[in-house]
Write a structure and sequence with these properties.
This protein is an alpha+beta fold and 380 residues long. The protein has 12 helices and 4 strands; from the N terminus they run ααααααααβααββαβα. Helices cover 73% and strands 8% of the residues. A hairpin with a 4-residue loop joins strand 2 and strand 3. The longest helix has 42 residues.
């Protein structure tokens, strides 16, 4: 991603420099001012290039850090570390190149301070996740309005881009004052500069869209089970937390069913994990056919699932639902007929708010009921 952006920007710069050379030599070869203006154009183009690279690096830095925080996958730390190294190198080059202009240097230093602050926050979040866990790490990156911080950073670097583009336009207008060609040359140079900014911003926006799609995929992976595609424990915890917070008057009860596949370990041991995965995916499909459209099904462990049934239902409806879940799992059978272990489903029940007002409290009651059901099925 970063190499593609750098190549595109480099090609555009080469094109603009080529135009500068052709028309500059044709109109101002004998002028001493031409050399000065030409060096200024190269200087401003270099400032633009370094600024665009800083924007790209900042996006990759944030993506790598978010990927690690959301998934805990340490492979995201490599692009994060590469982007951090690249940012420091490009920032150093920008500060060095800006020494010729106090105004640009001041803007570059301001952007550098914003970058240093953002890197410090991101580094602290990564270290905190490794030491104290994801929750504390997310608190760090969400404190102080992270979107506002990134918007300030983009605005600061954007001011450099706008200033440099304005300087380029002024130089081009001053360089080509020849009355016979001034209109043509000015339009060419103006068009080239504006095109450069538009195309460069188009490329950056394209990369931002790609990063947004990546972030959505990461968020989905962090909240859904990879094998079955249904919500996972993290999603379930957040869902119940929000539902309980909204239900201040305890007016919206729900039923929590703890579903556990009996003897699932024997299936993995005897038939292999591929068959076990197939059983899990087919079990989920059958559970979903037995549940209503608005009910929630989540996988919280290897062979453990939670079903959330909204609304208040009678004991008879509850028993009918449990029997329907057990029957739909067994008919037709998911296993070979000669499989020696008795496969089935154990179910525990908890109701909100009667049995508890937190996920842990509800799971404790439902887990106890599930094990009682399991003991009953073994005894029979």
């Amino acid at each position: 991603m970063q190499n593609r952006l750098a190549w595109s920007v480099g090609a555009l710069i080469a094109f603009l420099v080529g135009i500068t050379l052709v028309f500059g030599i044709q109109t101002s070869l004998k002028r001493a001012q031409f050399k000065k203006d030409f060096k200024s154009l190269l200087f401003h183009h270099r400032i633009i290039t370094l600024s665009l690279k800083l924007l790209s690096d900042a996006k990759d830095l944030e993506t790598g850090q978010r990927g690690f925080l959301l998934t805990g996958d340490s492979s995201y730390l490599e692009p994060y570390q590469n982007s951090r190294t690249s940012i420091l190198a490009h920032l150093d080059m920008l500060l060095s190149a800006s020494q010729k202009s106090p105004a640009i240097l001041a803007q570059a230093e301001a952007s550098g301070q914003l970058l240093a602050r953002e890197i410090s926050i991101l580094n602290r979040a990564i270290v905190t996740q490794e030491v104290s866990g994801q929750k504390r790490a997310l608190q760090i990156v969400t404190t102080g309005e992270p979107k506002r911080r990134m918007d300030n950073l983009r605005s600061s670097i954007g001011n450099i881009l706008l200033t440099q583009n304005r300087e380029i336009v002024l130089i081009e207008a001053r360089t080509y004052k020849d009355r016979r060609n001034v209109k043509r040359n000015f339009l060419i140079f103006m068009g080239g500069s504006v095109s450069f900014i538009i195309i460069a911003l188009f490329i950056i926006l394209g990369e931002i869209r790609k990063n947004s799609r990546l972030m959505k995929r990461l968020e989905n992976e962090s909240s859904h089970d990879e094998l079955t595609g249904i919500p996972n424990r993290r999603f379930l915890q957040e869902w119940i937390r929000i539902e309980i917070l909204k239900d201040r008057n305890k007016e919206f009860p729900f039923l929590l069913l703890f579903l556990d596949l009996n003897h699932f370990k024997s299936i993995n041991d005897r038939l292999g994990h591929d068959v076990g995965d197939m059983v899990l995916k087919n079990a989920v499909k059958r559970f979903q056919t037995a549940l209503r459209e608005g009910d929630l099904l989540a996988r919280i462990g290897g062979d453990e699932f939670i079903a959330i049934i909204r609304g208040k239902i009678s004991r008879e409806e509850q028993n009918d639902l449990i029997m329907r879940l057990k029957k739909t799992l067994l008919q037709p059978s998911l296993l070979p007929k000669d499989f020696p272990v008795r496969f089935g489903l154990s179910v525990g029940v908890a109701t909100y708010p009667e049995d508890g007002e937190t996920l842990d409290a509800l799971l404790l009651i439902a887990d106890k009921g599930m094990y009682e059901d399991k003991q009953t099925s073994h005894a029979s």
